[in-house]
Amino acid sequence: MSAFALAAYGLVAWMLNPALPLFLRWRARRGKEDPARLGERLGRASLPRPEGMLVWLHGVSVGESGVARMLALVLAERQPGLNFLVTSATRTSAAQWSEFCACDPLFRHQFVPLDSPQCVRKFLDHWQPDLGIFIESEIWPNLLRASARRGIRLALVNARMNARSRRFWRSVPGAARAIFGGFSFIGAADSETAEMLGKFVISPPILTGNLKAAGSATGRNQAWHDRLAADWQGRFVWIGISTHDGEEEILLAAHRRLRARHGNSILILAPRHPERADRVAEIVTHAGFTASRWSGILAGASQPGGNDILLADRLGDMGLWLGLAQAAFIGGSLHPDYKGHNPMEAAAVGVPILAGPHVSSFAPLYAQLREAEAMILAETDEAIAMALVRLAGDPAFARTLADAAQKMRAQAAAGLDVTIAALLALLERK
Questions:
Q1: For the segment 280-296, what is each residue's pLDDT rounded down to a tens digit?
Q2: Are residues 134 and 251 in the same domain?
């Protein structure tokens, strides 16, 4: 792909622009778009731009949004007065951000515009960000090149590309130079990505390591923590984080085995997509367990004590659950289609980590955890139950696992410091 090919891409995107509303309505009917916010995908802002300096952070989904949130909170602390615009592409990440933004007036969320010149122009005309931070591998040629032409400083943070993506960019060096050359700072999550990107930019990328390893859990409500801790005193509590269809049944079977040894144990089920909560509640009932729903507890419709399962049916409370748990199973790891989720929220608060074998989306993190003997690999309900029984009966072993994971997280924090320093320097150059 040459400069000519990039121009052709822009022309095709421009010509397709009239069909985009129809395309978005089709996606909305399939549940892929928020019908009430389709205008944002066309570049039409639904919120006013705040006065002052605006930092724009973009990450496609929930995982990248976690990095964006971490960066924004640190930047806000280091340089008061900044405002933040966060863009993402998925409904789940939008729901999570909406809750977060409702609690902090410095933050606002929009869906990222589609990559047509018309949509991009409307978006940038309205928001006029002072700094754009792109997370991982979300590369949209028209959006990035239009931002660079306007003089917006751009940073690519936690850059992480798989072997297929690296092969693609090596095959189109002209396009790679045109796109990645627009970034004033690139921080790479791994050496392979750093080496590949280094061939196309003047200033070599900085190897920061995977910033997701520096992540922390959010949503710690101290009053509810104290109440639930008192209600559950003496009971072994574990959590299934970001579970998917087909995984809850395995975790419930493991819970049944665990309760044969520790009869008052509690399982917190936190499905990746809270809209599945009704289905998960049916699965729990079919498995012969009773459950409290967190939304019902908050509404006063039910009480947290006494049940076998707590269904965490809303986003934003992971810090609360991990503060109560004595073990955490990371979902998305029991089926190859899901490819695993970030284990470092659990590591951040010192909770022993368990996961299945299918973790390709976070393979470097899990490889580090396994090498450091900081997690337990368990694929079946029997293996999960055996690990939980050991953790429940051997606090010293549980502490060893948690300490090893926290040490790995501390090392990643150094990469976060390097990244924050680079971003603040870009703001100073405005």
A1: 999 999 999 999 999 99
A2: no
